[in-house]
Design a protein that fits this description.
Elements: E1 8-14, E2 21-27, E3 45-54, E4 57-58, E5 65-68
Antiparallel strand pairs: 1-2, 1-3, 3-4, 3-5
Length: 71
Amino acid sequence: VSVSDATGYKFNVYNQAGTTLVTSFESATISFSFSQLTGYTFDTTYQVRVQVIRGTEYGVEGTACSIIDKV
């Protein structure tokens, strides 16, 4: 869900257990694709937590959701 006053979003991608940050990146939009991730492994589950960016301020991470790249 997009946030009306957001200037961007930070996607924090963690391992399956949610304990180790694998990669993170910022985007102007609320969606992303696996091609934007560096170092991900096909057929592996990741936990993603999103932070809203408002100017130079970052909100707290939201609740994690599980994602997996499968055919």
